[in-house]
Backbone:
């Protein structure tokens, strides 16, 4: 019998980039639910869309309809989640991809490879930020093996972080450039083609953006290390849907490239892609569509003596960075 | 009388991306030499090209012709420079943009804002790597003000780092994508459009690329700090000609965003672009064509307590990262 055969699974925000990937990830992880119900706004209601579960009809969202599902995956704005998630969670188990509940002490924030125990018994679970999830699956085995004293991250984030409108704006801009036309920006603060924008989400009083602080706040919560010194500079670049990140850590015990590689190779959710002699290393070109996060360019960083390590990671923002992790949480709850 | 009015200035490799920018930078810095002579291979010889100094004819390179110039700027491969630069330097002053001589103890490596004294009396001077030059002009005033204990850099490098062929390959690839055609790669190891390639120059035994190690080796030499702990992860992204970099430093004395900003604002070669309320920060879109390196996103990084600082820099790879710095060295030699 297939996974979740006696369950109804609902997806709210099903027509967005993350919502659509949630349907795909359910299928990809072997779910065969009694029913998959897709909810969106009235505008999309009635639309028939092809899915791996056959053609499905978009339903207009209502709390009562959502509550008919056993498990509800939400791929909506923080505002929408704030308004409805807790009500739905009175009857269903809700996994919310927005940042609305991630920082509430009474709500677990879960990456199944790291803190599955946090999900036990919860009816509302928060799914982490994309940049955090991609970094954390690589950092956790290193933390277990060597202890992380501090971590410094720089990101190379794809347009998909802003959803379908972000990807559309990049593609439209690139096509405009090819025709010799001006490049417009509205989803992003500046034109993204051929550019780099060190500005994702709003600026905070300390000068960091909220996106950058999410990596600090969420990694600390998921790892159960409320004081972990970890910083991020989050940068949008003209790629479509996989985020890359450079990560430098100082470790508590000595680290070598061989011991780091062994720790990473044995960890779930990771594919070590690190054969420089064959030009194999993590890239959006290869990480896109992949469930595992690619980890490579493993180097001992002498800036921290024999306690320093550099890695380069790349993960699909829409998969491990969003939809896949949410579906993995759902999988966890079935066990 | 204009700058260098009694001098002949020669440019070898004049038809390349850096060579052409050298002609522009000579004009931009107010040079009015007796003659500007442009040298290239036999293939280009005889070609007439428009320049700010009027239409000039490309001459076929020969050592004897180059030696007729007072100052020779070389924008050629390391192999070509190794073969000819020292011979030319027997009669002319040579400024070489390749990496051939940068690590020789008897040859100065110069950024005029930092170590102009090193150029005095030299007949062969090396111009630094592009990534190094852009980082170093921002790091030097911070080092003078606070002392740098260690530095960690991640780069966002433009196609121009591979010269005209690199820019052509990115533009051709983007146009192919717009038509729905396959994207080819030959200058780069993988297709660059919509991708990120953590591989610039060859891999070394320690896992770092030569590009990454250049930042370490060259910053140490230019700063006169042979042990400075500084590391780099060098990443190619689909931009055309300005390199961006995230830089995290731990300082010897305490640092604040205000004190860092003051140090940077008073430094030459830098434009502080750091008004997040107006969405002003360094970007290729604004740094391209600019002589100054843009510095912004100035933040105190708590990962190093009150001794940590994050900045984001962006500089034109072909200007401060290559041609402009070489011409500034020439300017220095006239004084």
Residues:
């Amino acid at each position: 019998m297939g996974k979740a055969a006696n369950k109804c699974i609902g997806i709210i925000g099903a027509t967005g980039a993350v919502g659509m990937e949630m349907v795909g990830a359910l299928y990809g992880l072997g779910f065969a639910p009694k029913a998959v119900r897709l909810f969106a706004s009235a505008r999309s209601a009635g639309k028939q869309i092809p899915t791996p579960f056959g053609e499905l009809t978009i339903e207009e969202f209502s709390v009562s309809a959502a509550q008919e599902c056993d498990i509800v995956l939400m791929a909506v704005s923080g505002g929408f989640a704030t308004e409805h998630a807790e009500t739905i969670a009175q009857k269903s188990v809700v996994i919310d991809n927005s940042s609305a509940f991630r920082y509430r002490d009474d709500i677990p924030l879960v990456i199944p490879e790291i803190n599955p125990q946090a999900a036990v018994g919860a009816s509302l679970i928060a799914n982490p930020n994309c940049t955090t999830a991609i970094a954390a699956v690589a950092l956790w085995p290193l933390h277990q093996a060597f202890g992380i004293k501090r971590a410094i991250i720089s990101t190379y984030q794809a347009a998909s972080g802003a959803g379908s409108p972000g990807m559309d704006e990049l593609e439209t801009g690139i096509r405009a450039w090819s025709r010799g036309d001006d490049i417009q920006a509205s989803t992003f603060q500046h034109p993204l083609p051929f550019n780099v924008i060190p500005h994702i989400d709003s600026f905070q009083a300390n000068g960091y953006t909220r996106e950058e602080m999410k990596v600090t706040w969420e990694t600390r919560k998921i790892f159960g290390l409320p004081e972990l010194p970890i910083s991020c500079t989050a940068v949008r670049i003209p790629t479509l849907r996989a985020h890359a990140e450079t990560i430098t850590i100082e470790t508590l015990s000595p680290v070598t490239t061989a011991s780091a590689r062994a720790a990473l190779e044995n960890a779930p959710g990771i594919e070590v892609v690190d054969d420089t002699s064959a030009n194999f290393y993590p890239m959006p070109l290869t990480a896109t569509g992949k469930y595992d996060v690619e980890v490579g360019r493993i180097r001992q960083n002498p800036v921290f003596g024999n306690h320093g390590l550099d890695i380069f990671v790349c993960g699909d923002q829409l998969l491990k960075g969003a939809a896949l992790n949410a579906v993995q949480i759902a999988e966890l709850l079935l066990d």
Summary: The longest strand of chain A covers residues 242-251. Chain A touches chain B through 58 residues (CB under 8 Å). The domain at 132-317 of chain A is CATH 3.30.360.10 (Dihydrodipicolinate Reductase; domain 2).
